[in-house]
Structure prediction request, 228 residues.
Amino acid sequence: MFRFLKKYHDDIKAGKITLTFQPWDTLRVLRGKIYRAYNLGLLRVLDVDFKKLTDITPEELKRCGYNSLAVFQREFEEMAERKVDFEKERAVRIEFEYIGEDIENYKKAMGNVKDSELYNLKEKLIIDDQKNAIPWIIKTLRLLREYDYLPSRDLEKRLRIPAERIRYNMKKLKALNLITSNQRKGYGITPLGVKVLKTLSSEKKKLALKNAGVAERAEVAESDGVVE
Prediction:
């Protein structure tokens, strides 16, 4: 379906390339659907439409990974396998996000996990956060849920963690399918991340109620002791 030169694969996987122009006569993909790109992995289409080749902007070329119009035109003709009239023809403009090489990982990120998996993941996050000198995992997920997407520099300020550490931490959360990344918007939380947060919040409420009950019983016992 999709065709990308191998030299762009790493940047697509890293979320640096989020746009492509394909030499198709028809719209072969649909918005919101997931497609497999040859030797690359799975892509979700965010937007798709036709666009005249003469109307493509420098900013769009940059999002495609091209450093010049000449490179784009040469490689576009390679994909088309024919001579292209760049003054008259149009292409299919596709905005997309890379979601990985395995559909099962994508399903997990969408929150499709067993209760036992959710429990184990929740326990792992609690334990890992307790080991950190400055707990950051749960706070990060809450920030991303609140703001939808946050760039790395905003996370640095809010968490008071240096840039290189942010990148390392985000890589760990991404490996657990809890967050996603986008070069333009930054980091965002996945449905699985939201589900984990809800589980953590529910447990926290139960613990608070339990502690309140213990405190209340202690007060009653103390009061009874005074009466006696």
